[in-house]
Amino acid sequence: xxxxxxxxxxxxxxxxxxxxxxxxxxxxxxxxxxxxxxxxxxxxxxxxxxxxxxxxxxxxxxxxxxxxxxxxxxxxxxxxxxxxxxxxxxxxxxxxxxxxxxxxxxxxxxxxxxxxxxxxxxxxxxxxxxxxxxxxxxxxxxxxxxxxxxxxxxxxxxxxxxxxxxxxxxxxxxxxxxxxxxxxxxxxxxxxxxxxxxxxxxxxxxxxxxxxxxxxxxxxxxxxxxxxxxxxxxxxxxxxxxxxxxxxxxxxxxxxxxxxxxxxxxxxxxxxxxxxxxxxxxxxxxxxxxxxxxxxxxxxxxxxxxxxxxxxxxxxxxxxxxxxxxxxxxxxxxxxxxxxxxxxxxxxxxxxxxxxxxxxxxxxxxxxxxxxxxxxxxxxxxxxxxxxxxxxxxxxxxxxxxxxxxxxxxxxxxxxxxxxxxxxxxxxxxxxxxxxxxxxxxxxxxxxxxxxxxxxxxxxxxxxxxxxxxxxxxxxxxxxxxxxxxxxxxxxxxxxxxxxxxxxxxxxxxxxxxxxxxxxxxxxxxxxxxxxxxxxxxxxxxxxxxxxxxxxxxxxxxxxxxxxxxxxxxxxxxxxxxxxxxxxxxxxxxxxxxxxxxxxxxxxxxxxxxxxxxxxxxxxxxxxxxxxxxxxxxxxxxxxxxxxxxxxxxxxxxx
Length: 655
Ligand code: ADP
Prior knowledge:
There is one protein chain. By secondary structure, the protein is an alpha/beta fold. It has four domains: 3-146, 3-Layer(aba) Sandwich (Rossmann fold), CATH 3.40.50; 151-270 and 303-330, Rossmann fold; 362-489; 501-650, Histidine kinase-like ATPase, C-terminal domain (Heat Shock Protein 90, 2-Layer Sandwich). It has 19 helices and 19 strands. It has helices at residues 3-19, 43-56, 78-92, 104-113, 133-136, 151-161, 176-188, 206-214, 238-248, 273-288, 310-315, 336-339, 341-451, 455-492, 505-518, 542-558, 590-593, 604-607, 619-629; strands spanning 30-36, 63-69, 99-103, 123-128, 142-146, 167-172, 197-201, 220-226, 253-255, 267-271, 304-309, 328-330, 501-503, 526-531, 538-540, 564-571, 576-583, 633-639, 643-651. The strands form five sheets. It has a five-stranded parallel β-sheet with strand order 2-1-3-4-5. β3 (99-103), α4 and β4 form a beta-alpha-beta unit. α2 packs parallel to α10. The longest helix is centred in the middle third of the chain and has 111 residues, at 341-451. It is rod-shaped and about 210 Å long. The protein starts with a helix and ends with a strand. The relative contact order is 0.06. Residues 551, 555-556, 559, 583, 585-588, 596, 602-603, 606, 615-620, 644 line the site of adenosine-5'-diphosphate (ADP).
């Protein structure tokens, strides 16, 4: 907010204040006079003053309270009353009272008779003993609270608190109040006939009264009606009388006045000066706020209430539960719960929250434990599953091992069978071939000359010779087949003997040349061998190397019908021995090229519709195994119907 704003606000407040009348201008402050009959040292009067003051001071800026004590207990002559009039006229002629509250009979009579002294203000009375007052007086501009001592309800309370109560001792003096009380009690005596006896303690000295009440039997009680003056004329204040009686009594004392309460009486239906003061002040407020006194009914019995002293109940062993409902109990031990109610509630709430929290924690712990248990269960389950699976795997591997073992046994058996069969086949085959040759030789030597004499036999002998030739060539093929089969089986079974030696490769090829050339004798195909000089040496089984050369050159011879076959042997840059057999033969279809190194594989077309003798389909497979055994490689290239080229490399000693 800026400085200008502040100034503006202050100005506004000032202007508004000009139009709002101040309470101090006499219009808004109400003036209330409390005129007490008795002096302020009377407990009763003091209580009334406190009651009025407590109500008016709730809004002390609106009400101004004036208090006067007429002291009529001590002075009550007409002269004195005249003096009072003078005094009040002097003091209050300029004061415009809005209400006058008067306590007790003397003051109300004085005020009614001298209204002009007090600005003719409405009168509100309290503590007036005359229960017929409102019926016998001019009630214009006046109302109030009558003082009604409820002796009956006090006796009822005594009977209730002491179920064994049989005798009531009534302490009463002959003051005005005492006489009124005596009359009231006498009026109700017949109602208790047979139920409760009454005994009067009156006209006795204080000492006699004390002596009497100190010796009372069980089942009795004292009713203190009024005791300001004893039989000897000695005056006692309310406090003095109750204190002395209480100090000696052997039974509970009941009473109807609040000035006895807390000083020795157990309690009763109490007439309270304070309550009278409060009620009168509230009525005065209603009138000042616009109600007419004539519209406000005079209060009679409602001014009283049951009141008890907890200390007295306890000292006479009276059960506090017996007191009537809605009673006011003074000196009640401080109830810790009531005193610290909010703190206790907060603490209880905290404890409750903590308990809830703990329960929640426990619950979540429980849930955690449940989850953990579940996890553990799952773990266990999985572990058992894994164990089971492992067991199964172990079982499987055992089975596989056994199967493998069996297979090996079978394989070994197969090799043994193959070996045996091959051997057993070769022997009779050799015999067959041998005898075939002998038969042919003998046939040519002894029978052919004979047959030449007979034309038809000549023809037949020719057929026999041809058939013998077929037997021979088939026998040889069968031998080759068996040999190849035996070689392959032995290599695969790892049983072949590799008789490796250091080979002078140049010499090897020189030796091989006539054998290789043999494949072409009697054919139109030309064979060329071109071997580089100074080939590096090779460590290998020379028979096996020759076997590879024979197979490759033999195949070339077999599948080439014109042109030439070349064997070219060189050394690669890496120091490998490289041999290539190329021909101008029938070639191999592309799609079959990849399979020709497989066991028993033969290109279909190569044997169909040709006169080529069927091979075994094992030659290239054996060659591949031999080359790879020495760490080399074998490959084929071919162009169908134009020729093929087979190359193998093997490491040399120069590598
Ligand atoms: P085989 O005893 O049948 O010759 P190989 O394993 O030596 O068995 O050869 C397999 C097949 O490869 C042969 O049957 C043939 O079909 C084909 N083959 C091999 N070499 C040649 C070649 N130089 N030209 C054409 N076909 C060939």
